[in-house]
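Hey, can you fold this one?
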Amino acid sequence: MQICQGKTWLIFPDLKECELAKKEWAGQRYQEATFTTIEAVTNYLGQATSGSYNSGDGVSYDAPWGSNLMSGLSQMLGGKDGDAGLLGDKSVLDPIVAGENSPAKLWFLIQPGNGGPVEDWVNCEKMHNMQKESTMVMVNGALDKVRGGFYPAVFFPKLAATIDRFYNKFESIFYLKPFSDKNVYGWLYRVYPEPWQVVWENVKPGKDGSPEVEYVVVAALDEKPSYSETVGMLMKASQSNK
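Sure. Predicted structure:
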């Protein structure tokens, strides 16, 4: 299958994470995939579409603050041997070869931006725009933070510009978020194409006196509820059980 012959790309936020994953994910299916990074893909596609990584036409990689400093330091410490590998081992990157593993059938973006630089999300949109035939799936992409206004537009204008034209178009295919607020506990859960489910976590005494947890679906919705709406449903379920 093409999807297994390098046509599935596992794309990591940085070189160190790619290096670790390639070492730990030793299974055959993983090793049949292409291991790479957001920077490598953005630069590869930028070169393929414009002939230059830094052509000034908006397709060059947006580097996180401080990354150029670390890269320069790594080169300096490497001396005659080259890069010292402070940012990771570049040899773990699988080659991207047009007509072989490129264009990809499926991109898995592994935790872009979540706990890392916001530039990850900006670069993901660039990647999509340069190779729209590849399906993009984000794993732990923290899109709630991106779409929910966590990053003020005045401080993050490039990221803010991506929301309506790109990130608001994403569909949640698997979602599981815990809620713990106002003395109620529960979950917001969804598996595409099923509805959104609000699940109340009801803790009650068991037969032997130890706590017993019961999970109760208190709502099934076509549209994703907001945080406050979810908490309100959980509170209502808790109060009706008293």
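The CA atoms of residues 31 and 166 lie 30 Å apart. Let me know if you want another pass with a different chain boundary.
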